[in-house]
Amino acid sequence: MNRPQSDAQLREAIMMTEYQSAPTGAQKSSHIHGASQAGECVIDIKKLSLVFETNDGPVQALSDINLHVNRGEFVSFIGPSGCGKTTLMRVVADLEKPSSGTITVNGMTPEQARLKRSYGYVFQAAALFPWRTIEDNIALPLEVMKFSSTDKKERIRKNLDLVNLSGFGKKYPWQLSGGMQQRASIARALSFDPDMLLMDEPFGALDEIVRDHLNEQLLKLWAATKKTVIFVTHSIPEAVFLSTKIVVMSPRPGRIHEIIDCDLGPDRPLEIRESEAFLKIAHQVREGLRLGHSYDEVHS
Ligand SMILES: Nc1ncnc2c1ncn2[C@@H]1O[C@H](COP(=O)(O)OP(=O)(O)OP(=O)(O)O)[C@@H](O)[C@H]1O
After folding, report:
1. Which parts of the sequence belong to the ABC transporter domain (predicted)?
2. pTM score, two decimals?
3. 234 contact partners, CB below 8 Å, separation of at least 6
């Protein structure tokens, strides 16, 4: 669902700065990373369904979802509007509760994982606080977690550098382009070094050239940080370019139609999009979307 930047979204950004207990010193990194190792399952979803009760009756947003995500994977959710991509990501982030089924994140409930700061969340709109500079936006989770001011400064510097925004820390969000704002919100999500990055169509509102550039940067960032990434998109080329695994979803009710491995290797220049291997996977995703979607239903 397209959720423009709103008070609710800013509130959610604040809610995600909640934490279970103030970790201190050396305790911090083990507290955040948990005990997990490479190749280990970080998200395990079994028979999960979610029904929204609305004034017009129940809406089955997710039905019988089964999904397994390993540490270090880049997993995209793709599908037509209303198929439940955002809802599924919000369940992982503990922003929605499932009606039935089970889910673990880093071996914990989503709530425990949120409180242990297992993930950083990047919204569709950058959700930066307009009255704070870019560095102060990045500092927000660190302030709530009571990082020392030296540690805070170093993390701001490192993460600005990671998203190529060194030198822009003192600017306000409105002084930056849309692409730069999104990079700043990625830096904020990464500031406390979470295991996982949850990204809800972060580049959907940007023009294609900027988007290509950010996709390249995101791949580099992913390779450098080795984070597990969950990424919502409507774009087939974006999903194929970025992912190790593509979850094709279909609507009414929202469900997983197919899970496609995307084994293009770690080295992916933009030109890879013209390669036979890339086009083959893109075709498979398009077919999956077509088969999982009845176009007649959309207009009924
Ligand atoms: N808070 C809510 N209350 C009631 N219904 C909701 C709520 N959030 C989502 N829905 C409904 O659940 C279904 C799935 O919505 P969701 O936003 O997850 O889809 P999506 O695939 O992310 O869509 P889009 O691509 O348009 O962002 C839709 O029918 C939507 O209208």
Report:
1. 45-272
2. 0.85
3. 78, 81, 201, 204
Q: From the CB of 21, is ligand 1 less than 6 Å away? A: no
Mutate to test the pocket of ligand 1, among 48, 59, 203, 234 (most ligand atoms within 8 A of CB): 59
Name the nearest CA neighbour of 235 among 1, 76, 62, 123.
Answer: 76
Strand partners, 44: 68, 104
Query: How far is residue 41's CA from residue 104's CA, in Å, rounded to a whole number?
Result: 9
Q: How far is the CA of 52 from the centre of ligand 1 (A)?
A: 9
Six-digit token string for 268? 């992916």
What does the pLDDT average to over 113-126?
A: 85
- Tell whether the model's pLDDT for residue 295 goes beyond 60: no
Length of the chain measured in residues? 300
Q: Phi then psi for 165, rounded to 5 degrees?
A: -120, 20
SS (H, E, C) 195-253: CEEEEECCCCCCCHHHHHHHHHHHHHHHHHHCCEEEEEECCHHHHHHHCCEEEEEECCC
CB distance 49 to 60 below 8 Å: yes
Q: Is the CB of 178 under 6 A from ligand 1?
A: no
Please count the CA atoms within 13 angstroms of the CA of 202 that sit on its side-chain side: 33
- Residue holding tokens 């606080």? 129
Does ligand 1 lie within 6 Å of residue 52's CB atom? yes
Question: 81: CA distance to ligand 1 center in Å?
Answer: 8
Residue 45: CA atoms inside 13 Å, Cβ hemisphere, count? Answer: 24
CA 81 from chain centre, in angstroms, equals: 17
Please answer whether residues 177 and 134 qualify as being in contact, where contact means their C-beta atoms are separated by less than 8 angstroms.
no
ipTM score here?
A: 0.98
Angle at which helices 134-144 and 178-190 cross, to 10°: 20
